[in-house]
Request: fold
Amino acid sequence: MKAVGASLPRYDGIDHVTARSRFVDDFSLPGMLWAKAFRSPVASARIVRLDTTRAEAMPGVHAVITHADVPNNVVGHQEVWGIAPDEPLLAEHEVRFVGQLIAVVAAETEAEALDAVQAIELELEERIPFLDVRNAWDAGQPQVTPDGNVFFYYPDQPQRQIRKGNVSEAFAAADVIVEGVYRPGAIEQAPAEPAAALAIPEPNGRVTIHSTSQALYYSMDITARHLRMPMGMLKFVGGTVGGGFGGKIDTKTEPITAVLALKTQRPVKWRHTREEEMLCSTTRAAWHVEIADAVTHDGWILGRKTLTLHDAGAYMMTSAYACSKHAFHLAGAYSIPAVAFNTFVVMTNHVPTAAMRGFGVTSASFAVETHMNRIAQVIGMDPWELRLKNANRVGDSSPSRVVYGNPSTVSTLLAAAEAADVELPPDERAMTNAKRSGALLPAHLVEQQREPVTHPLVWRDNHPALEGGV
Amino acid sequence: MALRRGRGIATIEYPTGMNQGGDPSQAWIKVKPDGHVDVFSGTVDVGQGSKTVHTQIAADMIGVPYDTVTMNNFDTDTSPVSFGTFASRGTFIDGNAIAVAAYRTRQRLLEVASRMMEVDPEDLEIADGDVAVHGAPERKVSVAEVAATASWTYGEMIAGSGAWMFPHVEPDKETGECEPHAAISYASCVADVEVDDETGEVRVTKLVQVYDVGRAINPTLVEGQIQGGAVMGLGLALLEESYPYYPELSHRGPEFGAYAVPGMADLPELKNVALEDPDPVGPFGAKAVGEMANNAQSPAIVAAIHDAVGVWVTELPARPERVLRALDESRQPRRDGRRVIYDEHLAVAAVSTAENRAEGAWRFPLVSE
Reply:
C-alpha cells in the first residue's frame, strides 16, 4: 500500500485530542524556578533609573536580570541574512514599545516572581511615539531609531524595488489608470499554546532548553548568540507545538530562561500569559499599499506602479525579509509586462511585527486582488474574464523575470467557477495554462515571453543530491 | 433595513520555501535490526501534521509500511538541521531532505539484500516491506530480515542521510531580478456574503476554494490546512485587529474576550477542491498549501461586500463600523481625465504633504507621479 496520497490519521492526533501529548509547559523539574517579566508601560521613553534592589530582596527570589546580565544583549533575527542586529533582549537606555522587556525575575513560585516584578522601580522620561507610517519622512516627527524611521536596504537606496519593462510607455498607452489604497491591519497569531521555555543547566556546562519554537535550530542560533556560547553547548528540545502561525519564530523565552538558569544554576521556566501573548509579543504587520494600474478598455493590464509601507514596529525582527518577499508578489497571479514596485520598511513605536501565515504576501494578495476587482468594475468587465485574460501562463515571466514553468492560475479559476456553479462563456472555459497565442498574446505581452527551462533541482532518480554515500 | 447578498472572487499565488532561498533542511534515517525505520530531522510539527506527512514520504521512498516508520524531531542533539517550520517549507524542503535520506537508506537495504540473495541490486525492488527480484516476486526477503542480517551477521548498519536547499539568491538592487523561490502554488476563492445595511454586519455564507497543491501527500491534512486557513482568512477579513484605532495604541484586546477570532458559528459552508498539478521539484510532486490558505478570503469577501452594497472597504478588517461608514459616506472615486482615483483620503499624499517635509528630505515615490 502506498502511503503518499492516503488520508492516514495524524501521527499524534489521538494523543492531542486525549490530552496525552506533552507540550513544554507539561514539563516540570525539582527545584525549578519560575520567571516573570517586568515590561515597559509606555510606547517610547528614555530610561532614567531602573532599580531592582528591592525586588532582589523579596522572598523566594533567586535572580533579577537586566540587560547587564545578558552576555550579548543586542541580537537580530536576520543576522544570518546580513541585517544588522538592533533589538536588545532586555531594554538598555530606552524603551520603544508598550510591553518591551526590561527585567525578568526568577523565584520559587510564580506568585513570588510576580510580587518581585511589582517591586522593581523604574523612572522614565516619556517621549511622543511615532505611529503613522505615512509620516515617516516628515519634518519634526519623533525618531524611532537613531538612524531614522525608514530602513535602508542599501546605503543609498531605502526601498526594495522591482523594475521591469517600460512603465512610462505603458501608462502613456493606457485607456484608464486605476488607483487605490489598501490597508490590511495588524493581527495576533493567537496560537492556543502561548510561548514558553524551560531551561535546565546541565552538570557539564551545557544548557538544555525545552522550547515552543517553530524553528528549533533558528531559535538555538539566536539563543547561542545572546549567550555567546557555541550552539553545541545548547540542546533544544521541542518539535511538537500547540500552534505557531509565525508567532513562535520570535525567540525571547529561550534566551531569557537560559540566562536565568546559568545565573541561578536551577531549572527555570517561563510561560507567557495570554495577555503577554496578545499585547507584548509580535503581531502580523499592518501594511499600507498604493497601486496604480495602466489598463486598456478591453481588459489588459499594461503596467503597474506600487508603493508599500510596511509597519515594522519598534525593532527590525524579520521585516526586511517580509517587505522584500512582498515586492516579488505585487503582480499577483498575472502577467504584467511593465512594473515599478517600491517597498519600504518603516519603523514605528508599535510592538515589533514579525512572521504570520502568508508573511509579506497576504497584504499583497489583498491589495492586488481588490484592485483587480475594482478594475473590472471601472471598465465594466466580468472579473472572471479580466483574471482569465491576464492570468500567468507557461512562458510568461514574473516581475523578477522568473519564467513560469507550470502555473495553474487558469486551472484553479476554471475549477472554482465550476465548483461555484458560475457559467463562463465557452471561450473562457476552453482556456488552459499553456503558452499564450492568438488573441491571448497581444503585442504588449510578446516581449516578456520566454521558453521555460527545466529546473536544475528537478526531482529524479539520478539527482545530484542522491549521489554519494551516507 | 435589508440583508443584501453579494459574491466576490480572488485568485492568488504563493511561493514555497523562504524568499531568496538559502534555507536548508537535513535528515538522517536508521533502520533497526527488526526493520523498523527511524527518521530524524529537526522539524517542528506546529499542529499541521508535518510528522505524518514526513513519515509518509519516508515510507514510500524506502518501500516499507507506514506504520513501521517513526518520526523523531524532538531535540537538536539527535536531529539535524531544519531551518524551521515557516515559509510553507515543511512538506517541500524538509520533505525533500527526508526523501533524499530515505532514497539512500533504500540503496543500503538493496546493497545488503543483494549480498544475501546474490542478485544484482539493480534487479531488486522494495515494496510493502519486502525486497524482491524484478519479475520474480516470489524471490524475496523482508526488510526485517535484511536489517537483522546486516546487524547480526554482517556487523553493518543500515542508514542514510540527506539534505535539500534552494540556493540563496540576491535580487538585483535596481530591478529586483532573481529567482526567489523553489515553487509557486495557486488558488482561487469565491465568497458569498450577506451584508446587513443597517448594522454593517457581514456574514460569509459560503466559500468555494480551489488550491493547486501539486500532490496531496495526505488529502485529509490538506483539507485541514484549507479549512483552518479559511477560518483565519475570515478573522483577518472581518474581525481581528490588534489596534482597533490603528495607528493609535488604545483599546488593544488583551485576551480572547476582547479580541475576536472567528468561532464555529462564523464558519460558512465550505466547498474545497484540491487540484494536483505535480511540481517537478517537490517530493512526489507536492508543493505548499500551508500559508496561502488564509490569503484569498479577504479580497474575495471585500469584493462580495461591494457586490452586495456598492461600497469598497479597503482597510481591514471590514468590521461593521467600517462598512456603515462607507455606506454613509458612499465615496465615489475621483475622476481626472483617464485617471480613476479611489481612496484618496487614505493615501500618503493625504497626510504627508510638501509643507510637512524637511528641505531635501527623502520622500516616498507616489504612484500617481
